[in-house]
Amino acid sequence: MTGSALPAWLRESLRCPVTGGELVDDLDEQGRPQLVSPGAALAYPVRNGVPILLAGQARPLSGADSADPRP
Fold it and tell me: Which whole-number Å values give the CA distances from 67 to 19, 42, 49, 64, in the listed order?
């Protein structure tokens, strides 16, 4: 995803709730924004501009997705 709808100071403070690692802006297969946690191999959805950082709402990444997270 090019850019984020979130203010930069807020976006930089978001972390994976599972690993505490940095999240990477990305798009899912349908072109919707998501935040990827390479360390946890999870993709968190962004709905209506709001990141849903709940492990139960995250989608596990396939091997191809987790090997190439796009910044």
Answer: 17, 12, 26, 5
Helix/strand/coil (H/E/C) assignment for every residue in the chain: CCCCCCCHHHHHHCECCCCCCECEEEECCCCCEEEEECCCCEEEEEECCEECCCHHHCEECCHHHHHCCCC
State how far the Cα of 65 lies from the Cα of 67, in Å rounded to an integer. Answer: 6
Rounded to whole angstroms, how far apart are CA atoms 7 and 44?
Answer: 18
Question: Whole-prediction pTM value?
Answer: 0.78
Assign 5 a pLDDT band (cuts: 50, 70, 90): low
